[in-house]
Amino acid sequence: MKISHLLLLFTFFCSSATFAQQKKKVPAADQKMNAFISNLLSKMTLDEKIGQLNLLTGGEATTGSVVSTDVESKIKNGQVGGMFSFTTPQKIRKAQEIAVNESRLKIPIIFGQDVIHGYKTTFPIPLALSCTWDMSLIQKTARIAAVEATADGLNWTFSPMVDISRDPRWGRISEGSGEDTYLGSQIAKAMIKGYQGDDLSKYNTMMACVKHFALYGAAEAGRDYNTTDMSLDRMYNEYLPPYKAAVDAGAGSVMTSFNDINGVPATANKWLMTDLLRKQWGFKGFVVTDYTAINELIDHGLGDLQAVSALSLNAGVDMDMVGEGFLTTLKKSVQQGKVKTQQIDNACRLVLEAKYKLGLFEDPYRYCNEERAKSEILKPEHLQFAREAATQSFVLLKNDKQTLPLKKTGTVALIGPLANTGPNMPGTWSVNSDLGNTASLLEGMKATLGSDVKILHSLGSNLLANEEYQKRATMFGRDIPRDNRPEQQVIKEAVDVAKQADVVIAALGESSEMSGESSSRTDLKIPAVQKRLLQALLKTGKPVVLVLFSGRPLVLNWENENVPAILNVWFGGTEAAKAITDVVFGDVNPSGKLTATFPQNVGQIPLYYSHKNTGRPLEDGKWFSKFRSNYIDVSNEPLYPFGYGLSYTTFDYSDVKLDKNKFKAGEVINASVIVKNTGTREGKEVVQLYIRDLVGSSTRPVKELKHFEKINLKPGESKTVNFKITVDDLKFYNSNLKYVAEPGDFKVFIGTNSRDVKTNQFTLL
C-alpha cells in the first residue's frame, strides 16, 4: 500500500512538474487567447455553449439535401456558431451584424463554403491538379482561392479532400489526389499552406478543413457513403498519412467521414477522433461533421437523435453540420448524465479558438470588404494562372504518328456532346463558378484561334442514350441539350461535317456531374452512344483526336487501340476551353502524369501500382500461368499505369547511379539519373523515384513513390536529377504499429512512370 501511495505521489509530482514546464512554454499570444476565451466561457450559459456547436446553411449553394430554417432568430438567440452557403460580403455582413449586435454575448459567426478547386476563378478538379505533380502550382491555386473567397466574406473552406482512392467507380475520386500515399501527403501540405498562409488572422487567409476523416475513399464497391473495412496495416501505411500530413501542416479543422471504421461510423468513433487524431497526432483544432452526419447515425443503427448526438460529442466531434442534433438534445443529455458539461466546454472552446485565430473577435467584419470583392475576384492574373494550371493538368494518353499538336491552319471539325457546353467545363464541386459565363470548348477555340482555323461544329450524339440517366448526369445547371432525332440521323450529320474538315476533334466522355459526390458508376466506359459516334468519325479516314473529359479513370481499351491521339483534359475549370486549345494546337506541350491507374476493365478494380506481392506472383512478361495470381481472361496490367503521361517530345533516361550501396541511419544515399530531351520540342518531365523493401517483418508493396521532381528541358538538353534517400524514406508501420526502418536490401527505381523504370539496389545496415 505504501509503495502504491509513493508511486501515486511520484506520478503526481512528475505530472505537476511536466505541466508546469508546459505552462511556461505557452506563447504569450496563446496565453492571451486562452484568457480571453476562458473569460467568455465563464459568461456563457449551457444553451449558448451548445449554440456555438451548431453549423447551419443559408441555402445559397447546393451542397446537400437540407436547408436550415428560422436562421435569423437562431442567430439572435446565440444558437448558431457557424454558417455556410452564404456568399457576398453584403449578405454575410448582415448575418454577422445580427450575431454581433443582437445576440446576448455578441459572439461572431464563422462563415464557410465548399471552396474545392478555386472560388469564382475555378481551377481544374483536384484529381486533375494532382496530375501536374507541381506543389508550388497547387499551393498557388489554394492561395488564389483564399484571396477570392475571403474577398466575398468567407473565412473557412471545406477543403482539401485528401482521401486516398483506388476505386474509380467512386465518384469522389475526382475531388481527391488519386491513389498514392506520398503524393497525396505532399498535396495536402501544399493546400493547407495555400489556404492558411502563415497567419490565419490576415484578411486574405482562410481556415482549411481536412476531409473526410477517415478512409472515405475506400468505400466498398465504390458506392458513395458505403461502409469501409480494412486492416490497421493498410490504414496506417496507405490511407492515414495524407490526413496526418495536413494536421502536421497546421490545418485548423477536420471533417468526419460518412463511412464506418471497424464497425463504428466515423462521426461516433472515439478511437478515431480522440485517441488517434488528438492523442496520437496532437491535433489542436476542432472537428466538424459532414452534412447531417450525426442524424445519419440513426440509419447506421446507433440509436435515436439524442443517443447519436451524445455519442458524437463524446467521441470528439465539436460542431454539428446542419442536423441540429446537438442544438436540440445535448442539454437533455447533460441533465440525464449522458454528456458531461466539460465535454461541451471543451468543444465550445475549440470553436471559439478558431474564431479568435481568424481575428473575428478583433474585427467581425474583416472579411466583409465590398471593395475587395469588386477588385480581387476573377482578376486577369487569376484567370491567366487558371489557364496555365489547366494546361499542366492534361495528360496525353496516346499520340500516334505525332497527330498532335494540330497546325493552326485549315478546317477542324469539333464534334461531340462536350464540344459546346460551357457549364460542364469547370467540373464537379464548382458551386461558386459563374457557369453562364464559362466558355465552351467551341467558344474558346474560336476566341483563341480567330480566323487562322475554320471550325465546324456538330453535336454528333447525346451525352447518354437514356434521357433519365442524362438528367442525373447533368444536374445543378450542367444541362446538355438533347437531339431527339433518330441516332443515325444525328451521327450522319456529324459525319458530313467531318468530311469537310482536315482533322476531327471528338469532345467526348463524362459530363461534370457524372463524377463527384453521389455519382458512383459501375460502367466506366465512354457511353455507348458516344462510342458509336466515334466509330463513325474514324471511318471517314480523317485524323481523329479524342479530347476526353472525365472526373475519374475510364476504361479505354477500344479507344486506345483505334484512336490516333487521346488527350485527357479532365475538367479544367474556368479557363478550360482556352487551355485545351493551347495544348491541342501546340502553344503548350502537355506534361501531366496520371495519379490514378487506368484499368483495362472494371473487373480489375481495385487496381493500383503499389500493391503487395503474393506467394504465387506472375512472372515478369507473362500473360497467364496456371496456379499463379492472375486472370484467365485479361492480363494483370493496367491500360495506363500510375505516373504515365506522354509529351510532344521524348525523354531518355540513363541507368540509376548510387553514390554508395550501403548506408545506415543518419547517412544519405544519393541516387541520380541523367534525363535527356531527345525530341524536337521543349518539354517538362516528372522524374519519379520508387523504392521496394525486399525483406520485411510484414509484407511490403512492390513499389512505393518516395520522391519526384518536375524538370524542363530544351531539345537536346540533358540534366542530372539527384534524389537523397534517407532512412525516413524506408520507414513503415510494422505489425505492432511502430514506425520503423528495418535493416536489409532495397530496390530503387527511377523512371518516367511507375512501370517504365531503371533500377539499382542498396542495403540499410
From TrEMBL:
Q: Which GO terms describe its biological process?
A: glucan catabolic process
Q: Which GO terms describe its molecular function?
A: beta-glucosidase activity
Q: What class of enzyme is it?
A: hydrolase
Instruction: Please list which residues make up the signal peptide.
Output: 1-20
Top-rank taxon of the source lineage equals: Bacteria
Read off the PANTHER family from this record.
Answer: LYSOSOMAL BETA GLUCOSIDASE, PERIPLASMIC BETA-GLUCOSIDASE-RELATED
Q: What is this protein called?
A: Periplasmic beta-glucosidase
Source species, please? Pedobacter ginsengisoli
